[in-house]
Amino acid sequence: MSSPFSSAHRLHVKSLYKRYLVDAQNWTIRRDLWRNKAIEIRAEFERNRNVKDPRAIAQIIAEAEERLAARAHPDPYIHALYPGGTKWERNLPPPMDKPTPYM
């Protein structure tokens, strides 16, 4: 049974779901509290899983994007080794160019 929606649509919904989870993790650092919020987010996505009307789906996605933008954390958590993190490019190996001659 094939899906009436494209793979691009599925990827967009998956991306939206992951962004919701990451934003929830930015607001709640403790893993047990975050897990409860993740279950609520999953339930919200599951409620809209069987919607088939493309206009209704577009409206649901637009509303979800607006809610996500409205509640985005002002100072999101950045992992230490990711760009912008506290250890990004720390202790880089020396360049492997020609060595400087000593005189």
Features:
103 residues; mainly alpha; 3 helices; elongated; mitochondrion inner membrane; NADH dehydrogenase [ubiquinone] 1 beta subcomplex subunit 9
Describe the protein.
The chain has 103 residues and is mostly helical. The protein has a domain at 7-70. It contains three helices and no strands. The longest helix is centred in the first third of the chain and has 21 residues, at 7-27. It is elongated, with a radius of gyration of 21 Å. The model has no long low-confidence stretch (mean pLDDT 88). It is found in: Mitochondrion inner membrane. Keywords: Acetylation, Electron transport, Membrane, Mitochondrion, Mitochondrion inner membrane, Phosphoprotein, Respiratory chain, Transport. Residues 12-69 form the Complex 1 LYR protein domain. Belongs to the complex I LYR family. Pfam families: Complex1_LYR.
Number of H/I helices: 3
Q: How do the SSEs run, as a string of H and E?
A: HHH
Number of strands: 0
Radius of gyration: 21 Å
Distance between the termini: 75 Å
Helix content: 40-55%
Unreliable stretches (pLDDT < 50, length at least 5) are: none
**What spatial form do the alpha-carbon principal axes imply?**
elongated
Largest sheet entry: none
Give the strand content: under 5%
Helix-and-strand structural type: mainly alpha
- Report the average pLDDT across residues: 88
